[in-house]
Amino acid sequence: MEDLDKEVITIENNNLLDKFDKDKVYKAELKKLKGIFKDIPKDKMQVAESLIDQTAFMQATLKELSLYIDRDGAISSDGKGNVKESPAVKSYTALINRYSNSIKQLLDLLPKNISEPSNEDNNAKDELLTFIKNR
């Protein structure tokens, strides 16, 4: 029964990989990121556009790698009994770090809102502090 379960999971994951459209995921991510970072000042937008494009590509690749990891597992064997991290996991780990750095760089390009907190914000903050103190 356990072998049948593994076979079903493998078939499902292979179907996911077969159906995975990296270009479609990339385009959707690109659209999402452009919407999120639309307020980047024009003088920084040329740099931001390239970074947005690369970040969208990285996200699509991360989704693809996660399907390989789901299908093949996080560890692999070299045939001699030695177990090591799978190549997909190594790639995923390196890419997720680059992706996180890219998102941080994009966030740093957004204008800083240096406005005073509203009375409503101050009231909510006071209520939260009162609640915490009374617990």
Quick description:
The protein is mainly alpha-helical and 135 residues long. The chain is built from 5 helices and 2 strands.
Describe the structure.
Helices cover 76% and strands 4% of the residues. By secondary structure, it is mostly helical. It has one domain. The chain has a two-stranded antiparallel ribbon with strand order 1-2. The longest helix has 31 residues, at 42-72.
Protein topology:
Layout: H1 2-19, H2 22-36, H3 42-72, E1 75-77, E2 83-85, H4 87-109, H5 119-133
Antiparallel strand pairs: 1-2
Helix pairs in contact: 1-3, 2-3, 3-4
Organism: Sinanaerobacter chloroacetimidivorans
Protein name: Terminase
Which properties best describe this structure?
135 residues, mainly alpha, two-stranded antiparallel sheet, 5 helices, 2 strands, 76% helix
- Average residue-wise pLDDT: 83
Number of helices: 5
Main sheet?
2 strands, antiparallel
Q: Structural class of the helix and strand makeup?
A: mainly alpha
The level of helicity is over 70%
Portion in beta strands = under 5%
Order of helices and strands: HHHEEHH
Can you tell me the overall shape?
extended
Spatially, the strands of the biggest sheet line up as: 1-2
Radius of gyration: 22 Å
Query: What is the CA–CA distance across the termini?
Result: 52 Å
Tally of distinct domains: 1
Low-confidence parts, pLDDT < 50 over ≥5 residues? 4-11
* Beta strand count: 2
Protein name: Terminase
